[in-house]
Amino acid sequence: MVTIAQERPDTPDAIALVTELETYLSTLYPPESRHGFSVAALVAQGVDFFVARQAGRAAGCAGVLCVGRDYAEVKRMYVRPAYRGQGIGRHLLQRLEAHAVARDIRALRLEMGIAQPEAQRLYERFGFRPIPPFGPYTFDPLCLYYEKRLDDAPAGNARGGAAGR
């Protein structure tokens, strides 16, 4: 059974997950194409952070940075390799979507790298569609940008089924 709890991104499990994600991404992208927040930045920016656990063990994480009512950005989405393929990424996205809908936010957006086709498929199955760079981002050939509109579907109606920055 998967449980997902909101917690500070500077708890031991959250730090370990974010560190693993950053180590993984460093094997795929140069520093200038990695836009993920550090743990300190997650705290400083007020990112609402969630940790997924299976049988009590930290299996994955994801955060959401609320940017007014227009959108919330998915931050630091990660599922440990041993837990992939079990729906944990989908559960995390459902939790982030419910969190955003409860705050009357109109869309979820994210930035991710091109070298993660499994995450790209997850986001697209979940209803994310490609968009141009947004917010603080500019064009980077190693990055993809996505959005899922939340204002055109009933709350909790996640369509479809991971790593994001």
Q: In CATH terms, what is the fold-level topology?
A: Aminopeptidase
What is the CATH architecture annotation?
Answer: 3-Layer(aba) Sandwich
What is the CATH C-level name? Alpha Beta
Instruction: List SSEs in N-to-C order.
Output: EHHEEEHEHEE
Which homologous superfamily in CATH is the superfamily?
Answer: Gcn5-related N-acetyltransferase (GNAT)
Overall SS class: alpha+beta
Task: Please describe the biggest sheet, giving its number of strands, its sense, and whether it closes into a barrel.
Answer: 7 strands, mixed
What's the β-strand tally? 7
Shape: globular
Mean pLDDT: 92
With strands numbered from the N-terminus, the spatial order across the biggest sheet is: 1-2-3-4-5-7-6
Uncertain segments: 155-162
